[in-house]
């Protein structure tokens, strides 16, 4: 999933596919993975910033990431200057290069462009690919849910010669979409709180709860998704909660993309990827856990009675802690 997301992001952002699926990876993905871990560690222990400059492997990846972005910027600027840039659509790089900084009324500098591109590639690659990993993991733990998803996809799109488009999937795959919401609720990929500042007047939450003016507040998304006042049997994986009229209302309570004016700008792209990639894969291939897997529907939590999830670790993104062990899946082509 990560290589797929990386190819999509590079095409949309730079107008240039890095072909990480074809090549089995790309150094920019390695850069994203190590940078996500370092960002989390630096936020807790700022001194660790020095690691980026003293560990050869990290230095090499950082230099490769910077040069990757800088080369794309220089090439595009040259095409624009020589009036040779021709495209049916403006990609994100073109929008950045031609944008005016509102603070100084100047074009963005190369260093600013590099920062924006690397941030966009990192944020767009890791979050969506990890979300799809968790969705498939839930399917393997809940075979009845997986079967309903497979049946819905096959019934809605029986002609396997035609790819499933995301608009069609959004319209016709109601239950599949419900499983995506439930996966994002139970295992949101946001690994850190979402921060906001209170107003200059402060915020009165309840009669006896007042947040002082200009106070930094962090929303704990995982906690909000377990609020029993909103989510009945919150620890249970139950996609049905998102069906029907009441289910539509609950979708607004899933906060993995944030909310308000600072909602995730890449949410529509994330949905496009999820609604395109997973239905097409599920229609074409069978997925099952290997026999030696230590996880599965038969391995349940003694307290909740629910299948045990793969252990996770949270840096910037909450992902499986032991992917080499817990993310193995047997894939076979459907006849």
TrEMBL record:
A GO BP annotation: secondary metabolite biosynthetic process
One Pfam short name: p450
Superkingdom in the source lineage: Eukaryota
Binding site for heme: 264
Keyword Iron: yes
UniProt cofactor(s): heme
Example GO molecular function: oxidoreductase activity, acting on paired donors, with incorporation or reduction of molecular oxygen
UniProt entry keywords in alphabetical sequence: Heme, Iron, Metal-binding, Monooxygenase, Oxidoreductase
InterPro entries (UniProt xref): Cyt_P450, Cyt_P450_CS, Cyt_P450_E_grp-I, Cyt_P450_sf, Cytochrome_P450_monoxygenase
Family: Belongs to the cytochrome P450 family.
Protein name: Cytochrome P450
Native species: Smittium angustum
